[in-house]
Amino acid sequence: MAASRIVIENCAIATVDADDTEYASGHVVVAGNRIESAGAGPAPGDLRDVVRRVDGTGHLLTPGLINTHHHFYQWITRGLATDRNLFNWLVDLYPIWARLDEPMVRAAAQGSLAMLARGGVTTAMDHHYVYPRGAGDLSGAIIGAAAETGVRFTLARGSMDRGMSDGGLPPDFAVETLDGALAATEKTIDTHHDTSFDAMTQIAVAPCSPFSVTTELLRQGAELARRKGVRLHTHGSETVEEEQFCKELFGMGPTDYFESTGWLGSDVWMAHCVHMNDSDIAAFARTGTGVAHCPSSNARLGAGIARVPDMLAAGVPVGLGVDGTASNESGELHTELRNALLINRLGAHRESALTARQALRLGTYGGAQVLGRADQIGSIEAGKLADLVLWKLDTLAHASIADPVIALVFGAAAPVTLSLVNGRTVVEDNHLTTVDEDAIARSTRSEARRLARIAAEG
After folding, report:
1. N or C, fewer C-beta in 10 Å, the chain?
2. Three-state SS at 56
3. Which of 19-28, 247-256, 336-345, 376-385 is predicted least confidently?
């Protein structure tokens, strides 16, 4: 039986392929869950099994956005500790997060995913590392929320085994044992990881950070990931304080420490990487280690400006991340296109740091590279999965900007007229089609109040 087709035509198209092919007015044909063709002008009129034709006049079609770093649970602690650096922010919030349970995490994941999807994200990830004792099936709750929303998803199953009594930041009752964390991570991989080309759910091994996990958890976590054939994720070189912590505790900087524990490689990506010297960047380039750049969160916490232009020049894979919504309250990735470009222009390279097209590539193909899925998603090419976003650019907000890519990146947030994930409609006319946004808003408000009450009671 022939696959049904969706045709999107009469729109500008930025394919983000290897040649940055663009069409001022073009078409894309989707057959089933794959991109069948893309080209200039209208689609052929004699296509069979067409179930829908979309007139994209006044729009830009791009690959779906890919989020490479997030903490969904933080959705229900937004707006707190707004004037803190990273370590003080964590000290303020860890006692609250240690009270999380399954209903809270499910609601927070639903809220985070809804905002991501409504803003053009077709592939999301969540780095969840807070597993309080007796809290329930937190990983299952997050994965279930992603399935309901309809986005492609990677759960980076995080862990912490260095509590306050061992010199870490999280409370002792919010951390796992070494053996417990490894066993739970392996079970999550065995239960949920999908290796197929069009996988909707994948798992990564993701101990939290050098200051909340032991060296042995990092080392054995890397061994577990490679034995299971999954990717590795953690936080790295986020702040000056982290660098000092590593030098005092381990006698070396974060990058050298990670390399000593097996945590550099083409199957690894790290969040932030703000404080990287030339040697660090060269090590990432040499090993193919990826970076999730989180410009808004880095600014919110005063962490600094990551050297993204230098990373790209060296050949380091770089994608974009929202980071947790307690350090980026908007919870949207499309704003990170603009912020990545603007914030990097405050650095050493000034106005030549990034272009609009480089920013779009970070949010699409760069993210696919970082997640190890560049042959499947991240660009509009025949044979790739049909993860596409149609951005409306013919309103007042963008009316006088002739270049559609510049309009999308430099301009105000553009409405999403259509978002397809795996060929399925997830957003239509700027509204989610898969979940009830109002119900999610009510649920997240309720769970945020409940968490605040429980934390206040101690």
Report:
1. N
2. coil
3. 247-256
Residues 6+ apart with CB under 8 A from 221: 159, 181, 182, 185, 205, 206, 207, 232
Burial of 427-439, coded b for 16+ CB within 10 Å and e otherwise, reads beeeebebbeeee
Find, among 65, 66, 64, 97, the residue nearest to 327 by Cα.
Answer: 97
**Quick check: helix, strand or coil at residue 361?**
helix
d(CA 210, CA 3): 48
3-class SS of residue 122:
strand
Instruction: Mark out the alpha helices in 173-329 (DSSP H runs).
Output: 178-192, 215-228, 240-250, 254-260, 278-287, 295-300, 308-314
Residue labelled with tokens 């976590």: 221
Residue (of 67, 52, 194) closest to 118 by Cα position: 67
Q: How many CB atoms lie within 10 A of CB 122?
A: 28
Axis crossing angle, helix 138-149 with helix 178-192, rounded to the nearest 10: 30
Strand partners, 61: 13, 390
Sequence letter at residue 237: S
pLDDT band at 166 (very low <50, low <70, confident <90, very high): confident
pLDDT category, 301, cuts 50, 70, 90?
Answer: very high
Residue 431: C-alpha distances to residues 120, 384, 416 (Å): 11, 25, 8
Cβ pair 326, 71 in contact under 8 A? yes
**In 3-state terms, what secondary structure has residue 40?**
strand
Whether the model pTM is above 0.90: yes
Q: 214 near 162, Cβ under 8 Å?
A: yes
Whether residue 116 contacts residue 67, with contact meaning beta carbons closer than 8 Å, is answered with yes
Q: Is 233 helix (H, G, I), strand (E, B) or coil?
A: strand
Taking CA atoms, 262 is separated from 106, 186, 350, in Å, by: 33, 18, 35
Q: Measuring CA to CA, which residue among 48, 60, 80 is closest to residue 11? A: 60
Alpha-carbon distance of 363 to 105, in angstroms, equals 26
Cα separation, 246 vs 112, in Å, equals 32
